[in-house]
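Hi support team,

I've been running sequence recovery on a batch of backbones for a student project. Most finish fine, but this one hangs at about 90% for roughly twenty minutes before it completes. I'm not sure whether the input is malformed or the queue is just slow. I've pasted the C-alpha cells below so you can try to reproduce it. Let me know if you need the job ID as well.

Thanks,
M.K.
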C-alpha cells in the first residue's frame, strides 16, 4: 500500500499506483480526496523504453520478451516504490516530511 498525501494513511494499493500516470486522478480509499502520481513517474518509464529499444538488437524471441518484460517490471517497481503520490495541483517534492 502507498501513503496518501492528504490523510497519511495507506489508502492506495501498490498496483493502482503502478498503473496510473501523472494525468490520472484517483481517490484515496481512506479519505476520498483526489490525488495523482508525481510527474517523476515519466522517468520511471525509462527502463521499459530501454527494454523495447534493446529488443530491436536481437532476433531471438526469448531475448526480446526477456528485455521487454524485465524493463516493464523494473519500471513498475521504481514507480511503485520510489515515485511519490501528490495532491492534485501541488508540485512534487514540496512536502517531504518524516
Ligand atoms: Zn487519504
Amino acid at each position: 500500500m502507498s501513503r496518501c498525501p492528504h490523510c497519511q494513511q495507506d489508502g492506495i494499493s501498490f498496483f493502482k499506483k503502478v498503473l496510473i500516470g501523472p494525468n490520472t486522478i484517483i481517490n484515496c480509499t481512506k479519505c476520498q480526496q483526489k490525488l495523482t502520481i508525481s510527474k517523476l513517474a515519466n522517468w520511471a518509464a525509462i527502463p521499459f523504453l530501454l527494454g523495447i529499444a534493446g529488443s530491436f538488437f536481437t532476433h531471438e524471441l526469448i531475448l526480446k520478451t526477456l528485455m521487454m518484460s524485465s524493463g516493464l517490471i523494473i519500471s513498475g517497481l521504481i514507480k511503485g516504490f520510489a515515485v511519490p503520490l501528490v495532491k492534485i495541483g501541488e508540485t512534487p517534492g514540496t512536502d517531504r516530511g518524516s
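--
Follow-up from support: It reproduced on our side and the slowdown came from queue contention, not your input. The longest strand covers residues 34-37. No action needed from you.
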